[in-house]
Design goal:
Blueprint (H helix, E strand, L loop, with lengths): L9 H17 L4 H8 L6 H11 L4 H12 L8 H14 L3 H4 L1 H13 L8
Helix pairs in contact: 1-4, 1-7, 4-5
Length: 122
């Protein structure tokens, strides 16, 4: 990805925001969205709980793969690391997102789950 204007990825941010919001809602027992997203009517409560378990535990690599498959995120970001760099850039431009935006808080949790357990030793 071209490093110039790294933060100014207007359309990229819209796709990211849509994917992120959808994933967050799927992690919150949103049965209606899950049925619409999967195009499967009348899901059983156990299926919805299983989806919640899966979506709520995604790390950034899993999210990147999922969002690339469903939203074409890989058309905008080279890989999960590129995505994380863009997220960092967004936070640098608007530090209040961490305090006031549930979707971006959800993203930071995915990034945190992606860190190697021994990263603090490096």
């Amino acid at each position: 990805m071209n490093a110039t204007n790294f933060c100014d990825r207007g359309a990229f941010s819209i796709v990211l925001r849509t994917a992120l919001s959808t994933c967050k809602q799927l992690s919150e027992d949103n049965g209606e969205l899950l049925e619409a997203f999967l195009d499967v009517p009348n899901l059983k409560p156990k299926d919805i709980k299983e989806a919640k378990r899966i979506y709520s535990k995604l790390d950034i690599d899993d999210f990147y793969e999922w969002a690339s498959q469903h939203f074409g995120l890989d058309d905008y970001y080279d890989d999960a690391e590129d995505l994380v760099e863009h997220i960092k850039c967004i936070f640098r431009r608007d530090e209040h997102l961490l305090e006031n935006d549930a979707d971006y808080n959800f993203m930071t949790a995915m990034i945190a789950r992606s860190q190697p357990i021994n990263a603090h030793l490096a």
